[in-house]
Write a structure and sequence with these properties.
This protein has 534 residues and is an alpha/beta fold. Helices cover 37% and strands 15% of the residues. The C terminus is likely disordered. This is 6-phosphofructo-2-kinase domain-containing protein.
Length: 534
């Protein structure tokens, strides 16, 4: 189904919800067959086999969030979805707040009063529709659906669990965020919640008071997940943004990966600096791979980078490099602790190491074309693919999530993979991300995305970026294959061009991209608004 068709279908469902809201029986969802229990055991529909399902490694999984408002559920949902997408697991978030806003714009505290029968009916319909859409997604080709809602009662969680396991034979994993730190809650409200569409044009003091009242409405009926009452459920409880965890009854590969990820993330404000090494001697010759030292221009960039990082005056900065000499040289003059990571080494080009694109096209035309046809999955003979590189970099990503202020000095393919994680890029786009030499990329993780700033340090360098050619057939000519690249090895005496700048710093105003890679000028608007509140 095309994206446009899917959007039209969603609009149709939302229209139906608006038309039928008044007719909803507020207890209708409680009567669903998923609540049926016989002798305290779950009933699987005909054709479903509980034991068979549990033996499957990649059984589709519903991840259901739980917890009071302002506990970071949507933050966790989006961050988790981005990670699963990056490692190749098809994932989508279904946020009940978005369904609710499509039906009604009224969202003040009285709307969330459990005694407000009309509002309860609307909320229950939104919950049911979002859950049905999530299950439909998994029934097609999805692997993980994240059901982002409060799910604060045992009755609601039992309904979700029974509906998903009995009707569809999916696995269900609950993620509950518990926070009793007033400091964290107040910071979350002020930094994130007040930017929600629910509080557009509402004075801050009034919005804060209303949201705190909303939380009180939820607290009246909040039942935390109980490992005795809900002992048959799989879940993780996260206390105060990672101070403590309780993990219960993990089942399968996906749940294990989710727990591994959630136990590594934190919400402490920090900045990640990312840069390629300075221009190397092999860069000047347009050769890929290898372990050559820096060119004179590359050494100049190392000096400029040290000056830039010193001027930034970053507290507790650490520097990570690969084990290749061009990254080690680039970082050598930076006054900060340094660590070398083998995982940060450039992609292994196998039999093509040290060759120019011209030479690869001449010697291995079939391989050259095959890589252009599917660059993310293509593996160099005797080398690696981008998919292999993502797997190799997963421990680096986990440490980046745990770390505070870090400068990563790495390589073009490695930087592309790291940026794809933070900017949520698709596999087909990842290998064509522009990462120019002699440019610092500043990443600031935000509530629901990542602020990206690109700062060129104005040291000339060659261009190493190659766009995907229009003709990817093996019988193409070299000129068709190489696009703007030279059709012969580069002349080292030719005048270099400046680094190709994707986003340029201009005075105090910096052009940025949001979590979806869209160019923006002010991140504080819609891209940073919170779609939760349900």
């Amino acid at each position: 189904m095309s994206k446009r068709s899917e959007e039209n279908n969603n609009e149709g469902r939302i229209t139906d919800m608006k038309e039928n809201t008044a007719k909803i029986d507020i207890n209708a969802w409680r009567k669903h067959p998923a609540f049926t229990n016989v002798d305290n055991s779950l009933i699987l529909q005909k054709g479903s086999d509980q034991s068979c399902r549990d033996r499957l490694v990649r059984t589709p999984t519903i991840i259901a969030m739980a917890g009071l408002p302002a506990r970071g559920k949507t933050y966790i949902s989006r961050k988790l979805a981005r990670y699963l997408h990056w490692i190749g697991i098809k994932t989508k978030v279904f946020n009940v707040g978005e369904y609710r806003r499509a039906v009604t714009s009224h969202a003040y505290k009285d709307f969330f009063d459990p005694d407000n029968a009309e509002a309860v009916a609307i909320l229950n319909q939104c919950i049911q529709q979002a859950l049905e859409d999530a299950c439909h997604y998994l029934s097609e080709d999805g692997e993980v659906a994240i059901f982002d809602a409060t799910n604060i009662t045992r009755e609601r969680r039992r309904f979700i669990h029974n509906y998903c396991t009995q009707t569809f034979s999916f696995r269900v994993f609950f993620v509950e965020s518990i926070c009793d730190s007033l400091e964290i809650i107040e910071a979350n409200i002020k930094e994130v919640k007040l930017k929600s569409p629910d509080y557009k044009d509402v004075p801050q003091e009034e919005a804060v008071a209303d949201f705190l009242s909303r939380i009180q409405q939820y607290e009246k009926r909040y039942e935390p997940i109980d490992d005795k009452e809900e002992k048959n459920f799989s879940f993780i409880k996260i206390f105060n943004c990672g101070e403590r965890f309780l993990v219960h009854k993990i089942a399968g590969h996906i749940q294990s990966r989710v727990v591994y990820f959630l136990m590594n993330i934190h919400v402490t404000p920090r900045t990640i600096y990312l840069t390629r090494h300075g221009e190397s001697e092999l860069n000047v010759q347009q050769r890929i791979g290898g372990d050559s030292p820096l060119s004179p221009q590359g050494k100049a960039y190392g000096d400029a980078l040290a000056d830039y990082m010193d001027a930034e005056n970053i507290p507790d900065l650490i520097v990570w490099t690969s084990q290749m000499q061009r990254t080690i040289q680039t970082a050598s003059k930076i006054d900060a602790p340094k660590e070398q990571w083998k995982a940060l080494n450039e992609i292994n080009a196998g039999i093509c190491e040290g060759l120019t694109y011209f030479e690869i096209g001449e010697r291995y035309p079939d391989e050259f074309a095959a890589r252009d046809q599917g660059k993310y999955y293509y593996r160099y003979p005797g080398g690696e693919s981008y998919q292999d590189l993502v797997a190799r970099l997963e421990p680096v990503i986990m440490e980046l999530e745990r770390a505070e202020n870090v400068l990563v000095v790495c390589h073009q393919a490695v930087a592309r993979c790291i940026l794809a994680y933070f900017l949520n890029k698709d596999a087909e786009d990842l290998p064509y991300t522009k990462v120019p030499l002699h440019t610092v990329i500043k990443l600031t993780p935000m509530a629901y995305g990542c602020l990206m700033e690109c700062i060129p340090l104005n040291i000339d360098a060659v261009n190493t970026h190659r766009e995907k050619p229009k003709n990817c057939r093996p019988d193409r000519t070299l000129s068709e294959a190489l696009n703007e690249f030279l059709e012969e090895p580069a002349d080292t005496n030719k005048v270099r061009t400046k680094s190709e700048i994707v986003y340029r710093s201009g005075g105090t105003k910096i052009e940025t991209v949001d979590a979806d890679g869209n160019r923006v000028e002010d991140y504080a608007g819609g891209a940073n608004s919170d779609p939760s509140f349900i």
